[in-house]
Amino acid sequence: MTALTLGDQQIWVNALAAEVDEFVRICIHSSDVSITLTKPEKSSIRNILYGRIVKVQERDNQVELQLDIAGKHIWAGISKWAFQDLALRLGQLVYIQIKAISVMIS
């Protein structure tokens, strides 16, 4: 596994042959991102980051959340049920979970 720096946080990806400080673009499908209000402990998920909800788009029974992590944006696709149950709102700080194997280098 290789750790990439994202602000003051790290995101783990499959082994990557890159130079230190080299810019790397990653791709994460919104369906591979989950949200939690408290920091998980003892999880198999390797990437647990924190960020802020900066945009909310509702579509049918799904909600797409745009999340800001150190000035970079990723999307999380969650159900309306989860959105309402967690009482998520714009500007809220949340923990973001991404399986390391779901992070692709583009």
Describe the model.
With 106 residues, this protein is mainly beta. The protein has a single domain (2-105), classed as OB fold (Dihydrolipoamide Acetyltransferase, E2P), CATH 2.40.50.100. Helix content is 6%, strand content 50%. It has one helix at residues 80-85, and strands spanning 2-6, 9-13, 26-27, 33-36, 47-59, 62-69, 72-79, 93-98, 104-105. The chain has a five-stranded antiparallel sheet with strand order 4-8-5-6-7. The chain has a two-stranded antiparallel ribbon with strand order 1-2. A two-stranded antiparallel ribbon has the order 3-9. A hairpin with a 2-residue loop joins strand 1 (2-6) and strand 2. The radius of gyration is 14 Å and the shape is elongated. The two termini are 17 Å apart. The mean pLDDT is 91. One of its GO terms (biological process) is molybdate ion transport. Residues 42-106 form the Mop domain. It comes from Aggregatibacter aphrophilus. InterPro entries: Mo/tungstate-bd_C_term_dom, Mop_domain, Transp-assoc_OB_typ1.
